[in-house]
Amino acid sequence: MRFGVLGPLEVRDRQGRLLLPARRKERVLLAVLLLRDAPTSTDALTDALWDELPRSAAANLKTYLSDLRRLLRPDVAVETRPDGYAIDVARADLDATHFEDLVAEGREALRDKRFDVATERFTRALGLWRGPVLDGLPVPAIVRPRVTVLEELRLAVLEDNIDARLALGQEVAGELQGLTGEYPLRERLWGQLMLALYRGGRQAEALAAYQRLREALDTQLGIEPSPGIRRLHVEILRADQALDRTPTAPVAVVPRQLPAVVRSFTGRQRTLAVLDRHAAKARADRSGTTVVVSGTAGVGKTALVVRWADGARDRFPDGQLYADLRGYDALPPRRPLEVLSRFLHALGIAPERVPPDLEEAVALYRSTLADRTALVVLDNAATADQVRPLLPGGSGCLVVVTSRDRLIGLVAKDGAARIALDVLTPAESAQLLATLLGEDRVSAEPEATAELAALCAHLPLAIRITAARFGESGIADHVAELRRGNRLTALQADEDTAVRAAFALSYSALPAPARRLFRLLGCVPGQDFTADAAAALSAGTLPGTTELLTTLTDAHLLHRDGDRYTTHDLLRLYARERAQAEDTEDRRNEASRRLYDWYTAHAEAAAAVLYPDMARLPRPAPRPLFENEAQASAWLDAERANLVAAVLHAAATTATTEAPVRTTGDAAERTTANTTGSTTEVPAEDPGIGPHAWLLADALRGYFWLRMATVDWLTVARAARRAAAGDPAAAASAELSLANLHFLRSEHAKAIEHSTDALHLAEQGGWPAGQASAHNNLGGIHRQSGHLAEAAEHFARSLEIDRRHGLPAGQMASLNNLAIVAWQLGRLADSTEYFTQALQLRREAQAPQGIALALGNLGELWHTRGEPDRALEHLTEALVIHREIGARVAEAGNLTTLAAVHNDLGDLPTAYEHARTSLMLARDTGERRIEAGALHVLGDIHRRAGQPADARDCYRQAVALAREAEDDFLEAEALIGYGEPAEALAIARGAGYRVVEGRALTALARAALAAGRTAEAVAHARAALEIHRATGHRPGEAHTLLLLGRAEPERAGAHWRMALDLFTRMRAPEADTVRGRV
Question: Residues in domain Bacterial transcriptional activator (predicted)?
Fold first, then answer.
């Protein structure tokens, strides 16, 4: 059920139907309850409803409340509390609080210079307003301050949004002219108008705007503009260059994925008009429309659709998505899940939030596009089944599919329209040749032009490639050369022959080195490549290879986009054909091995920089290829799709023997099929690249963890597991990867299965680092499930293996995990020692990720021990490193702890900012444990700020998420905040969480004292105090002493003096309160 107060009062049920109380008084009552942050007393409610109270006011109020409950039941409850009445509505279900949350996210993005995200959030927030607050209803005095705050916030958001759009370089001057007329005394709007006009080359108008503002302020208020506006005026007068600079914004959230338009596109006017009509229908009906453009190879389907789509950008304001499905490529077809992953990322969904399950990914994709008007281009589809998961569903989106097949199933079952694209007409062919060769040459030889077009079967691709070879000689000479070609068994003017003839003619004209490189490029497993990769493939120098690539690009056999090269799928197939015909098998295999060696060397070098302390398969130390973490991350990001393709291709070259069936685990991960959408053909020849499947997967495990790229991670790990069937150590590495993935997704049963398999395989393969890593995995799962004894046993065994074999990286991980267990058991001093040892080892190893994790853990521990300065020192250093290496999940965890420290210091604005950022990061990355922690801290912040309703809502969500993640420790902590300390105490005692046990006892004491059960309160408090002192949890000790002072008045002085000493050392704001009592 959703509620609206930003305009006329609205209540809508799950089906979107409008429900409103019949009586006007009931509507006012509902509005008051919705706008209040805290329970509202009976007296306050009656004052809100009646200027002069009738005798029946109390009875009428009960009737109104009863009717409201009946209207809202069962979705929303009107609760009776000791201090009044309250309505329990999730923030997302009330437009006012949803508006505030969007504003907070937008302002966070604005501070981070993510201007595209900021304006998207601000625009959505402003779109929630339907008119003045409670339009049509009297606004009771009790909620007028809240209404004023909301309306002022709306104006501030208008200004914030203008700032973001100015930073993006958008045109806003016209809009600002209207806003300054509507709000003539808001100086910020005038300053924005002055800046927008100046940046638009309208300096005189900018200066005139300043004069209008000055006159308005002087006339109405008798004041001058503010110093900031006066300074801007002077800078405009001086034409200060600083005014021209706008902060750099990251790539916009609105996707623009269309490839470049073919510059010499010709004809097709009728077909373009048909596409226009389909686009208009999709927008008018708000229905999902699919159009299939079918035609033979080389007929220009992609060029047509891209040309039309480029001209139709403005009709699809929410973006254009594009994917080459490779339905007729030499490479394996793109899997629907792979395409969905990239689409969702382009739509603003982080890769780590994309489910590795196809159905879940489809659901997320369709819900993301549900309210958007976007264009989706699916190029080179082979079957309807390849397309269906990529259809957005019912929305205003248009999907355009290109295929050599007519895709009858998509037309019949899914209602797609079909456009059959024929070859060019003779006139269009002549026009294209005129565009390519020049009007004069074509008009001078009309008959030869017509014959050339006919020999090319009027196919645009064949015409372009043929025209690329023309020099100064005449068209008739080239026609004769094309006819003389004896490469083809039969020269006929059909489509296939024309394309192959054009390819052959261009290929034969190349110098021998360029022909050789072209043939070898058929070995590239991915969609694109760099000059470095091509040099490795051909064993050439970089300058020489770059020169050859330029030759191929000039011949239209390659397409260059920045520093990367791609080629048409038909050309890739032709390259492979020529390689089969002209190069020996040994030469082809040598080239493949060189390329895969290059991929693996770079992936391993990047791994050594980014996560050197992660357990890896035994390999020679990689040659340093990257200077820093940023370079290593950038290379992996750029090559990720190619590396995934390389793993799949390498795995396909190995024997198809099925991996040994485990005694535990699901069958879905023991099959040789590609379970994410397609199968990979096993080549007839084995170039000897099979081991690269598991070597690349082993190197990428840490990268996938950092990026939380779950779809690619699962694909690569499963392929590596299949390929490594005969190598126990390699299979163990793949099992560890699967275990890590399932653990991060809180799928504990699967994580245990894969970790157990990894342990056994590592033992068989004689890989001690793998054994230790498997024990660490198992310990982590048991720890999170609340089985601390089992966890400690696995961590101790891991540390013993690491020390016996001299593995410092493993020792770091084992010490870190032992520290966490000691922490949860309440042995805070032991935990500090373990963390300190781990940090020292990581500093010696110069492992940035490990250093940051150890610093973050120590920071959280010092916070638990009541040492805020030490905590802030460690957490701040960790945060800098996490942001440098792009470890977003770890950054979110760090921010949660920083928020908690600042909250305990009484710095609520900073605490709130950190907690909100952490929450957004956690939700972006799909990390439920950190999301639960962030919500818990937000609850603490709201409670300290005197906002109990918001605090309770945060705690409730934190409990639910902790249970979903199967994290007993987080659940117990959240339950204390939620007001269920007895349940928290049961969990803590069952698992041995001593610090949480002490906190739960303190909370029970507080509840007992509030209820007047003083003896019970004292008993709980004394038990809690004993635990806090034994564990070294000073914040808990201080709060318990404060409570005991209230429960035992005769000993209050002694209790409060000890509490004052502790609060003072912790720089806690409670020190001032206690000092007054002492």
Answer: 94-237
Within this chain, do residues 668 and 772 fall inside the same structural domain, yes or no?
Answer: yes
Contact yes or no for 76/89 (Cβ under 8 A): yes
Let me know whether 806 and 891 are in one domain: no
Torsion of CA 88, 90, 93, 98, to 10 degrees: 120
- Measured distance CA(201)–CA(859) in Å, rounded: 51
State the CATH number of the domain containing residue 855.
Answer: 1.25.40.10
**In sequence order, which residues have a C-beta less than 8 Å from that of residue 721 and are 6 or more positions away?**
659, 669, 731, 734, 735, 738
In this structure, are 749 and 798 located in the same domain?
yes
Q: Quick check: is 50 in a domain? A: no
The answer to whether 625 and 598 have CB atoms below 8 angstroms apart is no
Is the pTM higher than 0.70? The answer reads: no
E strand or H helix at 698, and its extent?
helix 691-707
Give the pLDDT of residue 497: 55
CA dihedral 1008, 1011, 1012, 1014 (to 10 degrees): 0
Long-range contact pairs involving 574-580 (C-beta distance under 8 Å, separation at least 24): 574/500, 574/503, 574/507, 575/518, 575/519, 575/520, 575/521, 575/522, 576/330, 576/522, 578/507, 578/515, 578/518, 578/519, 578/522, 579/519, 579/520, 579/522, 579/523
Is 26 within the bounds of a domain? no
Are 430 and 374 found together in one domain? no
Over residues 350-357, the mean pLDDT reads 71
pLDDT digits (tens, 9 = 90+) for 1049-1068: 999 999 999 999 999 999 99
Total domain count, the chain: 6
Q: Which domain holds residue 483?
A: 426-508
Average pLDDT over residues 207-228: 80
Please choose, from the candidates 550, 556, 355, the residue with its C-alpha nearest in 3D space to the C-alpha of residue 467: 556
Is residue 342 pLDDT above 60, yes or no?
yes
DSSP string covering 429-487: HHHHHHHHH-HHHHHH-HHHHHHHHHHTTT-HHHHHHHHTT--SS-HHHHHHHHHH--S
pLDDT value of position 686: 55
Decide if 535 contacts 520 (C-beta within 8 A).
no
570 neighbors 301 (Cβ within 8 angstroms): no
Based on the domain organization, do 895 and 759 belong to the same domain?
Answer: no
